[in-house]
Write a structure and sequence with these properties.
Rossmann fold; alpha/beta; globular; AB_hydrolase_1; two-stranded antiparallel ribbon; single chain; 2 domains; AB_hydrolase_fold
């Protein structure tokens, strides 16, 4: 960990595990009889328990959103740039809750967990999860924490989808929903990218129909390829060009098929590192949850009709070079919110980093995010 500790850090944090013994019914028609959710919290809950903020993570995220896990930890949580004292989600004013979603692979019950009925990992027998299922489990977590209403539910990418779903499924249990670099549903192109990633995993000879743990192996190459495909979509052409250009690792072409360009080496490194820490079945599950997300579906594709159920206020942010979830997708949400006569604030941020821009603290982004969350804090007297 940096020495001295940054003054705007939440410091050393310890994850907590909450066990739920009551079955949770899932959208697929199956149920989990019992399950765990791993959670981190930052800041203090105020006397009337009104200053709680829920952080929803994206596809490869987890509960570790801010701070450090030990004094020797060199890397902070995945959204440390936005969570902490004086940051947009100010832990001097808010009680912040961040969890690893059901189906995850960082401690919450998921495909790599032990199935109590067999004594072996769930693997492919773990039920398919939807965004609505995640929101239901988060509402049950709020019950456990005695939080009746969130000051805000906040998320980027897939996390923004959860924030939107919260506004529809539990309209009386949140005051604000913040959806950053998100979308009301995937385009055909996005579903196609997810399918290529899944095919990379399932065609790995070590996948074993999802029961790779029974064979004491992992589909590393498939997961590596899936992450490489995904990572390309998170960056913009300009950001990749600025970072790598056409630079070679050496000074001349090798006339072969090993990694010769810097960008090739970078993608292989990212893929290899990801394959060591993420579960392949969880990757399949989370990409399918992305595919299924479409709250307008049951309203004949009319998102404005779905949003008539919402009562919270919204902040929607997009980024100019995000081609995974383009500004047009955010504008689709905003237009539907306006049509449904919901209160919404919207900004498109000019940033060169593509979809990953929501993780990078550019001044206009943090200024807008901070100003909105400052208003949220004032409303709850924080």
């Amino acid at each position: 960990m940096p020495d001295p500790m940054p003054v705007d850090s939440v410091g050393v944090v310890t994850p907590q595990t909450y066990r739920f013994e009551t079955p949770i019914e899932l959208a697929c028609g199956k149920a989990l009889e019992r399950y765990d959710l791993v959670v981190e919290t930052y800041g203090e809950l105020n006397a009337d328990r009104s200053n709680a903020v829920l952080i929803c993570h994206a596809l490869s995220g987890n509960h570790h959103a801010a701070g450090y896990h030990s004094v020797d930890d060199r890397k902070p949580g995945w959204w440390d740039t936005c969570i902490g004292p004086g940051k947009p989600v100010d832990t001097d004013r808010f009680f912040v809750v961040s969890l690893n979603n059901l189906g995850g692979c960082h401690g919450s019950t998921g495909p790599s967990s032990t199935n109590p009925s067999t004594g072996k990992p769930y693997g492919p027998d773990f039920p398919v999860i939807t965004v609505s299922d995640w929101v239901k489990s988060q509402a049950l977590l709020a019950d456990r924490l005695d939080i009746e209403c969130w000051a805000a539910v906040v998320g980027g990418s897939l996390g923004g989808m959860q924030a939107l779903q919260w506004s529809l499924d539990y309209p009386d249990r949140l005051k604000h929903a913040v959806a950053i670099a998100s979308s009301p549903r995937l385009t055909a192109q996005n579903i196609a990218f997810n399918e290529v990633a899944r095919q990379a995993i399932t065609s790995d000879r070590e996948f074993h129909d999802g029961r790779y743990q029974d064979f004491d192996t992992l589909p590393r190459r498939g997961l590596m390829l899936a992450r490489m495909v995904g990572h390309i979509t998170y960056l913009s052409d300009a950001s990749m060009g600025e970072k790598f250009g056409r630079e070679l690792r050496d000074q001349a072409y090798k006339f072969g098929y090993d990694a010769e360009f810097q960008v090739e080496s970078y993608l292989r490194y990212q893929g290899e590192r990801f394959s060591e820490v993420f579960d392949a079945n969880t990757y399949l599950l989370m990409t399918r949850a992305l595919d299924y997300f479409d709250p307008a579906y049951v309203f004949g594709g009319d998102l404005s009709k779905a949003l008539t159920k919402a009562s919270c206020e919204f902040l929607v942010l997009s980024f100019s070079t995000d081609w995974r979830f383009t500004p047009a997708r955010s504008e689709e949400m905003v237009n539907a919110m306006i049509a449904a006569r919901r209160k919404v604030s919207y900004a498109e941020i000019d940033a060169p980093w593509g979809h990953d821009a929501f993780l990078i603290p550019t001044p206009r982004y943090t200024d807008i995010f901070t100003a909105y969350m400052d208003r949220v804090a004032r409303e709850v007297g924080a």
